[in-house]
Amino acid sequence: MKQPARLLVGAIALSSMAFSMSSFAQATITVSTWGGPNHGINTIVWPTWKAWIEEATDDRVTVEVVHDMGPPPAQMEIVADGIADASWIFHAHMAGRFLATQLPEFPTFEEFSSEDASAAYWHTHQEYLQQANEHRGVDVVAMGVHGPGQIFTRDQISSIDELAGKRLRVGGGVMSGLAEAMSVTGVSIPPTGTYEAASQGVVDGAMLTLESLRSFRVAEVAPHTLTVDGGFYRGSFAIVMNPMFWDQVSDEDRAAIESVSGERLSRLFGYMMDVSDQRGVEFGEENGATFTQASEQDIDYLRGVASNLQDAWSESIKSRGVDAPAALAFFHEQLVNAAAEERIEASVVSP
């Protein structure tokens, strides 16, 4: 072979190697987010996950967060259609599609952290719930549970009976069943719309988490809170990715991203909810919010309501191939295990 030909072949080989190496370089996970710039998902979860991913992949993969790509109920579709690579979704926003994910929503009347609940939920999803195939079209990289859902009203309420006939913001799922049982008129609006709806008199209050006192300015329009230990309900979330994103990274980097997702990312999500709830309570107290504990009589009533709702749910997901009693038992076992494990706080990136 003549010298120029050898040089040409060598150049082509080097060029091919360079292209192969560069084809996976500097990949960016575009995250569609909602909740407002000061929400914990945007100040704690995404910055920390980004740092974890960059460290795990030696900066070959990063994260870019984009606001206002669509409303909260549209996030699943935004990711499935490839408009964004990832987002966080609230399952109750998609009535009918998600049933198995109602598992952590039922009131337990016991206190436990959202971090522990989210870790337990991740393992329960992997062991039992994913076979329902409710997240078809996207990959689930974390599951999350928010803090105790309480009831916020414009006027002070001291018992469930006083809620009859009032219009409250609800988000779907188990809270809708609870609202109906309490003779409340549920108004389906996202948490981001609660301030406007309450300030205009469209609703008398809301079923939301304690973090909403600050994050969604609920303390300004519905400053009175009726509380139950563990919450009237909890909320179910997932962080999802478009499966096509994995084509942009090597198998090594995919494994690295998955190593900082799963239980670890689920714990981070729950930790964020715990921190946000505490900040919400502090903000509410500073601004004159009141907190009234539900009576034992009301709690006994709620226990009966919760039992009926759980029985109906267990029956409804049989057709989706989920053993509800086994899944619930597993979830509560995992809660105990999660509480004994190391906290995620030391790994969180400070905002």
From TrEMBL:
Residues 1-25 form the signal peptide. The keyword Zinc-finger does not apply. The keyword Transport does not apply. Keywords: Signal. One of its GO terms (biological process) is transmembrane transport. Pfam families: DctP. CDD domains: PBP2_TRAP_Dctp3_4. InterPro entries: DctP_fam (IPR018389), TRAP_DctP_sf (IPR038404). PANTHER family: BLL6794 PROTEIN, PTHR33376. This is TRAP transporter substrate-binding protein.
